[in-house]
Amino acid sequence: MSALTELYAEIANCQDCGLAKHRIKVVPGEGAEDAELFFIGEAPGWHEDQQGRPFVGPAGAFLDQLLSSIGLSRNQIYIANVVKCRPPGNRDPLPDEIQACRKWLDRQIELIQPSVIITLGRYSLMRYFPHESISKVHGKPRKKGDLVYYPMYHPAAALHQGRLRQVIQADMIKIPEILAQAGKITETPAEARQLDLL
C-alpha cells in the first residue's frame, strides 16, 4: 500500500470539522503519485460527494477539455481540493473548515512533490497568497520556496460567466512552458518581501 493510499484511509475517517456530518463520500484527491502538476480546487460538489472523486461534474468535464488542449490526461496530473468534503448546499468552505483540512493537503503535496501547483479559484489562491485578487494574478506564475504557483480561475467560473472561458483556456495553454521553465522562475524582490509577511 502506498503512503498516499494510507493517507486516503486517514482522510476517510476524519471528523475534524462539521462537514464530516453531511458528507456522503470523502473526496481526498486522485492522480499520478509522481505528478509534476498538482491542481488544487475549492471543495467537492454534489457529483463529487456521490462518487468520492474530484472534478467529476460539469466543471470537471471542462477541466478534462482543458487538460486535453495541452496534451494531458488526468492520470498524468494530481488533483485535489482545499476541503475534502462537500459543504452543505454547495456553499463556500468556511475558514475553520479550510484550516481543519489544511494538514491533509500539506501531506499530499509532501508525498507527491510536484514542480508546479495550479490553484483553481480564489480559495486555493488564498491559501498561498491571501492578499491577492484572482482577477489580477491569474495566468502569472510565481515562486514561493521551492515551488512554482500558477493561479487560474476555477473551471466552474466559465460555466457561470461565459466570457471567462477564453481567459481560462489561454491560461491553461501556458502551463507546459511554465513547467519547462519551473526551475528558472525566481521570486521578484517585491514578491519576496510580500511572501515574508505570509
Structural account:
- The protein is α/β, with parallel strands linked by helices.
- The chain has a single domain, classed as Uracil-DNA Glycosylase, subunit E.
- The chain has 10 helices and 6 strands.
- A hairpin with a 2-residue loop joins strand 5 (142-144) and strand 6.
- The model is unreliable at 191-198 (pLDDT under 50).
Task: Describe the structure concisely.
44% of the residues lie in helices and 13% in strands.
**Number of contiguous helices:** 10
Question: Distance N terminus to C terminus?
Answer: 36 Å
Secondary-structure content class: alpha/beta
Shape: globular
Q: Please compute the radius of gyration using only Cα atoms.
A: 16 Å
- The total strand number stands at 6
Order of helices and strands: HEEHHEHEHHEEHHHH
The first-level CATH class is given as: Alpha Beta
Q: Give the percentage of residues in beta strands.
A: 5-15%
The CATH topology: Uracil-DNA Glycosylase, subunit E
CATH superfamily: Uracil-DNA glycosylase-like domain
Mean pLDDT reading: 91
Give the secondary structure arrangement, pairings included:
Elements: H1 3-12, E1 30-31, E2 37-41, H2 46-51, H3 58-69, E3 78-81, H4 95-112, E4 116-120, H5 122-128, H6 134-137, E5 142-144, E6 147-152, H7 155-160, H8 164-173, H9 175-181, H10 189-196
Helix pairs in contact: 1-4
